[in-house]
Each structure stands twice: as C-alpha cells, then as structure tokens.
Design brief:
Blueprint (H helix, E strand, L loop, with lengths): L18 E5 L4 H12 L5 E6 L11 H4 L2 H4 L2 E5 L5 H9 L3 E4 L6 H6 L2 H26 L8 E7 L22 H20 L3 E6 L2 E2 L8 H10 L4 E4 L5 E3 L1 E2 H14 L4 E5 L4 E3 H12 L6 E4 L14 H5 L8 H14 L1 H7 L4 H14 L2 E2 L27 H4 L5
Parallel strand pairs: 1-2, 1-4, 2-3, 4-5, 5-6, 6-11, 7-10, 8-13
Antiparallel strand pairs: 9-12, 13-14
Helix pairs in contact: 1-9, 4-6, 6-7, 8-10, 8-12, 10-12
Bound molecules: nicotinamide-adenine-dinucleotide and 2'deoxy-thymidine-5'-diphospho-alpha-D-glucose.
2'deoxy-thymidine-5'-diphospho-alpha-D-glucose (DAU) binds next to helix 5, helix 8 and strand 8.
Length: about 400
C-alpha cells in the first residue's frame, strides 16, 4: 500500500517472519487494514483481538475467511483490550501491535461516556503494560526484538480548528468525551515511549468513510436513510467542515507509518477533500438521485466542533500520498452500500431502533426543512458549488487532488 520509501529503509518489515496483533480489527478501519494487508499475500500473519461491540462484526472479515491462503495466516480472538489475561499472550507473540480498538462515535460519547474511557484509557494502558513486559522478556533473552506499538488516534484531539491547519505540534484541545478519551490514550502512549523507551508511533487520522462503515456515522447514515426515503437529520446549519479520507487511504497511511515512522513519531493523516456537511449531503443525494427535501435541520450536537483541518507535510515527507479523491471515494461507497444491503440492514438491527430514538426522536420532531443548495454558474475556475461552500480552503480544486497538500 505504500507509495514511496524513505531512504533509511523500513523500521519494521512485513512478510513471512512478521506477526501483527490488530486490536479492533473487526471494525470499519481495522478490518480494512486486515483485508488489505492479507490480500497482498506477502506472508504476513495477523491476529485480530476484538470485543465485538455493536460496532464490530466478523462479517467485515468474511473476505479473508473465504480465501484459504489468507485464512491460513489469520486468527480471530474475541476479547477486551482492557483484560490483561486476554491481551498478554497475544502481545507475547506479536512483532507489532496496532490499536484500532475504541468506542468511536461522538454522539454516543455524549449520551454515555464511560465505555469510551474504559477502552480508550484503561484498554490502552493494558496494551502498553503488556508491551512493557515484552521489553523485559527481550532484555532477559526470552524473545527477539520487542513489539512496535501503533496507536490509531484522531484529528479530533486538536479540537475545533477555525482557521488554518493543525500541525503535530499544535496543543491538544479535545472538546467531546470521545476526543478527550482519545487524547488521554495517546498521551499514555507517548509517556511509555519517554519513560520506558517503548518503540511507539501515533497516527491522527481525518474523518474516514467507505465500505463497511457503521451506519451511525454521517455518510452511511444519510446514505442508508436516503435509500429508505427516511429524513436526513443535519445538525445545526450544516456548515461544519470535515476533511474526508477514504478508508483504504487511511489504512494504507497507517501501514506506511508502521513500517517507516520514526520511534516516538506522531503523524497527521489528512483527507483528500475539505467539505461542509451540506456539500457532502448534496453530493451524496446527487449520486443516489434522491431529493434534497429529505434533509431536515435538527438541533445541534452539544459542543459540536466546527472544523477539522490538518497539515500533512510530515506524512508526505515519509513518502505517503493519498490515492482516492472525495468524488471517487463517495462513488465507491455508494456502490458498495447499494450492493451490500444485507450487511447494513444487520448493522441497523439489535439496539439500533432504541439508539435512533434516543439520538434523533426529539430532534426530528423539532426538525425543519432546509433551503436547497444554490447552484452557482460554472465559471472559468471550475464547477458550480453548493451553498455554504466558501470558507478557509473551501471547495478548492486543491482539495480534490488525492494527497494534494
Ligand atoms: P469502529 O467503531 O468501526 O470499530 C471499533 C472496533 O473496536 C469494533 O470492532 C469494536 O468491536 C472494537 N472494540 C471496541 N472496544 C473494544 C475493546 N474494549 N476491546 C476490543 N475491541 C474493542 O471504529 P473505526 O471507525 O473503525 O475507528 C477505528 C479507530 O480509528 C478508532 O480508534 C477511532 O478512534 C480511530 N479513528 C476513526 C476515524 C473515523 O472517521 N472513523 C478517524 C480517525 C481515527
Ligand atoms: O475526525 C475524525 C473523527 O471522525 C473520528 O475520530 C470519529 O471516530 C468519527 O466518528 C468522526 O467523527 P465526527 O463527529 O466528525 O463524524 P460524524 O460522522 O459523527 O459526523 C460528521 C459531521 O456530520 C459532523 O459535523 C456532525 C454531522 N452530523 C453527523 C450525524 C451522525 C450530522 O449533521 N447529522 C448526523 O446525524
């Protein structure tokens, strides 16, 4: 998946000698990483440790199980990263640990923060302690090189970036329980590097979208609701801005940092297109050929971050470029959800109805229609733009170019 190699060569080589422990590997981004690495058939072995919360599903790993060569290099263990007994023996076998496991939905963190802290802070601590034990075993000659640890973090740790972009040196200012738990988790990771000398890397990814994303998140929620002709609950004025990263680019950048990242290094993983939520929804409805009248403006998310935006120079210097533009990624996502109705219907079962009512019942009752986007005439600089598209770096051609920063 890497697109360029720094001159110093990899810190970690993947191949027949390498065994990765991927925690949270039955979720959206983790399962993409597992599918992509195993499909390359370079001999790398992967163990997934996943608690299978409402967000995880073994179905996400079905393509691996369906292929005998990949299945032979893959093992699934159901368990909790906050359980030292489950974690220790798996870390003991690993050359690297990649921690994708988290409660990942901001709205749920506002309803019920506790699980976010248990997995995001205690769980990370348990994984780090198990790695520290492996350093002691290595020092005693009981194993070879101890494991590299990669923590999958998020751009939300910077809080809302009203103008400009966050670099890796920008102070952390998380504003939701989810983001605060993610910041606490990565600070622990950094502390274990400084205090105990663990080889760690941290990635801070942008808003990710694509196949297999749980339908609680903006793009798959609005996509599946639109297919059902149900209302689309747009928070507030819909002019919040996110920088969208296609899931294979996120997984690929994580692999690149795993292989080439400097010990102790922190890497922003920006997306390939900053958009307002209104622009995202308009593009989605266009592809689905569904009317704008489905969109309802509903009371806002408390503490809603207005904008996320990151500088990607450090990742670019490491040799990584995103490959998938927002337009291409959205098209692929729509095609996948259309073709995989059984998958998303299963994800919208169980506690879905209760969650939906709690999150959206009163909001939708108070919802109002939203003015449709006004098409601007196509000028010499390019296509017409949806309303609300202006702002810092808004709707620029640069944002449309894969890795264009
Ligand atoms: P997800 O919710 O789809 O998947 C999370 C997975 O972790 C699920 O399979 C779940 O069962 C598992 N899990 C949860 N708690 C666990 C525990 N205690 N022990 C073991 N497994 C557990 O999340 P995602 O969107 O794939 O996000 C993966 C990671 O990437 C998270 O750490 C998230 O914070 C981070 N991230 C996500 C995005 C995004 O836009 N989705 C962007 C940047 C960073
Ligand atoms: O930026 C990275 C983060 O992106 C990840 O760390 C999180 O795990 C991931 O969930 C995501 O967080 P967001 O809060 O940005 O994503 P979400 O899909 O929940 O919302 C995207 C935007 O859409 C945000 O401005 C809120 C808005 N929104 C969302 C939902 C679910 C709505 O307007 N209506 C909705 O119903």
């Amino acid at each position: 998946m890497s697109t360029g190699e720094p001159s110093g060569g990899p810190v970690l080589r993947l191949g027949p000698e390498t065994h990765l422990l991927v925690t949270g590997g039955a979720g959206f981004i983790g399962s993409c990483f597992v599918r992509e690495v195993l499909a390359r058939r370079d001999g790398t072995r992967i163990t997934v440790l996943d608690k299978l919360t409402y967000a995880g599903s073994e179905e996400n790993l079905a393509p691996v199980r369906a292929d005998p060569e990949q299945a032979a290099r893959f093992r699934f263990v159901r368990g909790d990263i906050a359980d030292p007994e489950a974690v220790r023996p798996l870390v003991a076998e690993a050359d690297a640990v990649l921690n994708f496991a988290a409660e990942s939905h901001v709205d749920r963190s506002i309803l019920d923060p506790e699980a976010f802290l248990r997995t995001g802070v205690i769980g990370v601590h348990v994984l780090l302690e198990a790695c520290r034990g492996e350093y002691e075993r290595a020092a005693a000659g009981e194993r070879g090189r101890p494991p590299r640890f990669l923590q999958v973090s998020t751009d939300e740790v910077y809080g809302s970036i009203e103008v400009g972009v966050a670099t890796e040196e920008t102070p952390l200012a998380p504003r939701s329980p989810y983001a605060a738990a993610k910041a606490a988790g990565e600070l622990l990771v950094r502390a274990y590097h400084v205090t105990y000398g663990l080889d760690v890397v941290i990635t801070r990814g942008a808003n990710t979208y694509g196949p297999y994303q749980h339908p609680e998140k903006l793009i798959p929620l609005f996509l599946t609701n639109a297919l059902e002709s149900e209302p689309l609950p747009l928070y507030g004025d819909g002019l919040q801005r996110r920088d969208w990263l296609y899931v294979t680019d996120h997984a690929g950048a994580i692999e690149h940092v795993l292989r080439f990242g400097e010990p102790g290094g922190i890497y922003n993983l920006p997306g390939s297109g900053e958009r307002t939520n209104r622009e995202v929804v308009a593009a989605l409805l266009d592809l689905l050929e569904r009317p704008w009248s489905l969109v309802r403006s509903v009371p806002d998310r408390p503490g809603h971050d207005r904008r996320y935006a990151m500088d990607g120079a450090r990742l670019a210097a490491l040799g990584w470029r995103n490959r998938v533009s927002f337009e291409e990624g959205l098209r692929r996502t729509v095609d996948w959800f259309r073709a995989n109705e059984a998958w998303w219907r299963a994800m919208r079962s169980g506690d879905w109805a209760a969650y939906y009512e709690r999150q959206y019942g009163a909001r939708l009752a108070a919802g109002r229609p939203v003015e449709p986007p006004v098409e601007e005439p196509v000028g010499p600089m390019g296509r017409a733009k949806a309303a609300g598209g202006s702002g810092p770096r808004g709707g620029s051609a640069e944002g449309d170019v894969p890795g264009g920063r």
